[in-house]
Amino acid sequence: PGSGSGEERGVLPRACEEVFEQIARRRSEAEESGRALQVTVLVSYLEIYQEKIHDLLSASNADLQVRIHPVLGPHVPSLTESPVSSMNQVQELLDFGSKNRIV
């Protein structure tokens, strides 16, 4: 989704770029004050089609359900979560997941 350039990019790549820019900014601020900042970014990618949830990062057709966690709010147990450390890794996952879309 939105693997174009500039204004042609979709909302997902732009949002993820903003996340990595914020991490870099905060990491720099932490280093300036002699602290270390450890961050873990996990990517999931799902599609809801005909009221069914599809994990776009998994070949499995498991029956996924939205659950409400008292602290975290809505979440999907068993949804694939892939750790990433760069925008390139995110884009690879978005490209992979887009190929698995039903619509």
Describe the fold and architecture:
The protein is built from two helices and six strands; from the N terminus they run αββββββα. The model has no long low-confidence stretch (mean pLDDT 91). The protein has one domain: Kinesin (3-Layer(aba) Sandwich). The protein is α+β, with helices and mostly antiparallel strands and 103 residues long. Helix 1 (11-32) runs antiparallel to helix 2 (87-99). It has helices spanning 11-32, 87-99, and strands at residues 41-43, 46-49, 52-55, 67-69, 73-75, 82-84. A two-stranded antiparallel sheet has the order 1-6. It has a two-stranded antiparallel sheet with strand order 2-3. Strands 4-5 form a two-stranded antiparallel ribbon. It comes from Alexandrium andersonii.
Helices, strands, pairings?
Elements: H1 11-32, E1 41-43, E2 46-49, E3 52-55, E4 67-69, E5 73-75, E6 82-84, H2 87-99
Antiparallel strand pairs: 1-6, 2-3, 4-5
Helix pairs in contact: 1-2
Shape: globular
Tally of helical runs: 2
Strand content: 15-25%
**CATH fold-level name:** Kinesin
CATH class: Alpha Beta
Mean pLDDT metric: 91
Number of strand elements: 6
Alpha-carbon distance between the two ends:
12 Å
Q: Provide the low-confidence segments as ranges.
A: none
The neighbouring-strand order within the major sheet is 1-6
Q: Major beta sheet, specifics?
A: 2 strands, antiparallel
Rg, please?
Answer: 16 Å
Order of helices and strands: HEEEEEEH
